[in-house]
Amino acid sequence: MVAYKVLVHSSIRFDYSGIIIYFDPFKIQGNPNDADLIFITHSHYDHYSIEDIRKVDNGKTLYIMPETMIGKIEQIPFKRRIIGVKQTGSYEANGIYFQTVPAYNIQKPFHKKEFGWVGYIITLDNQKYYIMGDTDDTKEAEQVKADVVFAPVGGTYTMDANDAAHAVNMIHPKIGIPIHYGLLVGDQSDAKKFSSLLDSGIASDIEL
């Protein structure tokens, strides 16, 4: 069984039959220290937060992050538990299979393709979940096949609601979920607009 929840911003928690997986943990409440796997999309503070990582690390947590980050991150104990990934590849960690997709801006300078940052497609119970990361509407993103897509909609640093809806419509998953709004950029109106622009047959799973 798979349960997921968007926590804050782009922070997402999955519970896969008791296996706890976080993507970009940020503004974590309390100290659950329950993560089996933590996926990091890139090194910006709202996606790679040492403070929040410490709140969910259970002492054996395995980390997945772009290999371009590894030589630059802080020297802390979990360094020995890192799997570095390329922008395009297929991987396995603790029995969980996933792929990477380049995440980048097309014209804006915040997330250049050469930085090597990523989105993830994780397979759980034969369903594919695509966490896009901080990206624009790219040709690589549009070619993804997934059942559930978590798309940034806040604009400024990533896609806005219009571009995010276009990208998700091209992928045509069962569910499209807006992220990366409501804290640093964007608000609920962006999530609502994204939802309204999704094609018929794509559900929008949002908490407003």
Short overview:
The protein is of the alpha/beta class and 208 residues long.
CATH overall fold name:
Metallo-beta-lactamase, Chain A
What's the pLDDT, averaged over the residues? 94
Strand order of the largest sheet: 7-8-9-10-11-12-13
Strand content: 25-35%
Portion of residues within helices: 10-25%
CATH architecture: 4-Layer Sandwich
Rg, nearest Å: 16 Å
Q: Low-confidence spans: pLDDT under 50, at least 5 residues?
A: none
Name the helix and strand elements from N-terminus to C-terminus, one letter apiece: EEEEHEHEEEEEHEHEHE
Give the class from helix and strand content and strand pairing. Answer: alpha/beta
- Gross morphology is globular
Distance between the termini: 25 Å
* Tally of domains: 1
Assigned CATH class: Alpha Beta
CATH homologous superfamily title: Ribonuclease Z/Hydroxyacylglutathione hydrolase-like
The largest β sheet comes out as: 7 strands, mixed
- Helix segment tally: 5
Structure summary, number of beta strands: 13
